[in-house]
């Protein structure tokens, strides 16, 4: 596995990052702010994605990049495969509503292909997934955001120091089992139960380039990946263009 300190550095150019399962660009935007040139790939049409992207199956696209050698133009790969299988929001009481373990699970196949790239990589998933290493866990309160949104990151071929988890200031606003609770955070998922408006979601997540609720509720706050990207570039001692 290629280590960050071995990556080719080119003065005056940004290192390239491949953003797989990119959705509307929450993760990609954070990496761009950190100093990467970002290319995305998503199976859905994403006109709000703010960077060049390939419209198609992410794993098929990655396999093609590996087969042709084009993957070598990238310094690192980020992947956010579908998270519903085994996610905390789709088990327990929600399973009885048909949201349980019937969803497609692409984590293992994503990891297999990422290992074949020879590049450092990041796999992102929410809480509840037991099939990824929790090399890093991030929470909105670590960055002063208006969402909790815990996310776990498996790091292939490199490491990062875990931030201390900051105690939450209160509850997530909304209804729980018919009772309304107020609090300093909004729920970045679903529609009912006292969920936030689109402008509230945008403000809480730090996302202003899409007003599509589905894209906002699936996004990673860019602050998370900006932190990850800056840590990677610092380890690689990459000379990033301004």
From TrEMBL:
UniProt-listed InterPro entries: SAM-dependent_MTases_sf
Gene3D superfamilies in the cross-refs: Vaccinia Virus protein VP39
Name of the protein in its database record: DNA methylase
Source organism of the structure: Streptomyces zinciresistens K42
Lineage of the species this protein comes from: Bacteria, Bacillati, Actinomycetota, Actinomycetes, Kitasatosporales
């Amino acid at each position: 596995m290629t280590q960050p300190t071995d990556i080719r550095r080119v003065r005056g150019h940004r290192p390239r990052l491949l953003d797989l399962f990119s959705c509307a660009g929450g993760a990609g935007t954070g990496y761009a702010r950190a100093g990467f040139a970002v290319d995305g790939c998503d199976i859905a049409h994403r006109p709000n994605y703010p960077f060049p992207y390939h419209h198609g199956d992410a794993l098929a696209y990655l396999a093609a990049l590996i087969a042709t050698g084009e993957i070598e133009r990238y310094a690192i790969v980020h992947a956010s495969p579908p998270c519903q299988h085994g996610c905390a929001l789709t088990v327990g009481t929600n399973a009885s509503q048909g949201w349980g373990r019937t969803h497609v699970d692409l984590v293992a196949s994503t990891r297999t292909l990422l290992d074949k790239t020879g590049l450092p990589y990041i796999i992102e998933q929410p809480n509840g997934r037991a099939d990824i290493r929790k090399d890093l866990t991030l929470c909105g309160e670590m960055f002063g955001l208006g969402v909790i949104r815990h996310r776990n990151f498996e790091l292939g071929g490199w490491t990062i120091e875990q931030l201390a988890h900051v105690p939450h200031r209160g509850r997530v606003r909304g209804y729980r089992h018919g009772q309304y609770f107020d609090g300093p955070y909004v729920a970045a998922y679903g529609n009912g139960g006292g969920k936030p408006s689109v402008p509230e979601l945008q403000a809480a997540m730090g996302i202003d380039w899409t007003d599509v609720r589905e894209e906002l509720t699936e996004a990673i706050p860019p602050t998370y990946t900006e932190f990850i990207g800056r840590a990677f570039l610092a380890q690689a001692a990459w000379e990033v263009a301004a």
